[in-house]
Design a protein that fits this description.
mainly alpha
Length: 312
């Protein structure tokens, strides 16, 4: 039985959220041994090179190159730099909570610039996902989340999320005309090229211990490469707003992965409640899904790819 394309889109973003949830744990394992900017450079270069064969025969217009440059400058260069230096000026609790603001910016920009809308019941389920993510990340321990004390760092983390929201919006527009894998390959390679001179100017060392290489490769190919492919596929099939709405569930999967890797910690009752709320709201969000623009006013996100078939 053939799975409907919209259902595949929801499955893609759920799996992407799982991979996105791996990011904090994998990064923590690598950050102790490798400079943050070197990590930011390599995790784009490695999957970019792996996807490079897909660029054969791809045609990109001058206007699309401008959007790609904007997306890479904001999302691949400015976003990681602002995030990394903001992380140094904030706390781990704040960063986990504020990382969900990327989804908020993605949904807001999709609403404002892409004309995307959801049904009232979808908005209700979306609120359930947001509340669940809030419970999982904060555990209602507000003493651990200190905003004013680390105001500059927190603002930088929110600024980085805004950068990625802008990048997501431009990518959604580009996916109307360019297939997923070639577009991602161009963005990753161009992003690493723009980031390379910045890494060189900082004098960051590329001396990476051999024991860290497998973790770094897995981080690049799964939490960045495969995540981005699934993320873009969800953009195409269910839209940026609905994709952004499901992304905060990464908090739940990230907590579960962290507990597996670091078994000394345990789930709290609040986290269990939040996780149950997120799963229930996610199911409701899928069941309450409204008709696509293709079924109504005319699809704005489904690309008419000019350089190949309508597949990744």
């Amino acid at each position: 039985m053939r799975i409907p394309e919209r259902t595949r889109g929801y499955l893609a973003i759920v799996l992407a959220a799982v991979l996105f949830g791996l990011w904090p744990t994998l990064s923590k394992l690598v950050l102790d041994e490798v400079h943050p900017l070197v990590i930011a450079f390599l995790i784009q270069l490695i999957p970019g090179l792996a996807l490079a064969p897909s660029l054969r025969g791809v045609r990109i217009s001058r206007l699309d190159w401008k959007l790609i440059l904007l997306s890479c400058t904001v999302g691949a260069v400015l976003g990681p730099i602002v995030y990394l230096y903001g992380l140094e000026r904030s706390t781990a609790s704040n960063s986990v909570l504020l990382s969900n603001s990327e989804a908020l910016f993605t949904m807001m920009l999709a609403y404002a610039f892409l004309g995307e809308r959801a049904t009232r019941r979808e908005y209700l389920a979306l609120g359930g996902i947001a509340v669940g993510a809030f419970l999982v990340t904060t555990q209602l321990r507000f003493g651990d989340v200190r905003f004013l004390e680390f105001l500059i760092g927190n603002l930088m983390l929110v600024g980085a999320a805004a950068c990625w929201g802008v990048s997501n919006t431009t990518s959604t527009v580009l996916l109307r005309r360019i297939r997923i894998v070639p577009l991602l390959a161009v963005q990753l390679l161009l992003g690493s090229a723009l980031l390379a001179p910045i890494v060189a100017l900082t004098g960051a060392s590329f001396d990476i211990p051999l024991r860290i290489v497998p973790s770094l490769l897995f981080l690049a190919l799964s939490a960045v490469g495969m995540f981005s492919i699934l993320f873009f596929y969800a953009f195409r099939t269910i839209g940026a707003m609905r994709t952004g709405a499901v992304l905060p569930t990464s908090a739940l999967w990230g907590i579960l992965v962290a507990l597996y890797v670091f078994p000394s910690e345990a789930l709290t009752e609040v986290q269990i409640l939040g996780g149950a709320l997120m799963v229930g709201a996610l199911i409701a969000f899928y069941l309450f899904r409204g008709p696509s623009r293709a079924e109504g006013e005319g699809e704005t996100l489904k690309p008419a790819a000019s350089d190949g078939p309508d597949s990744p």
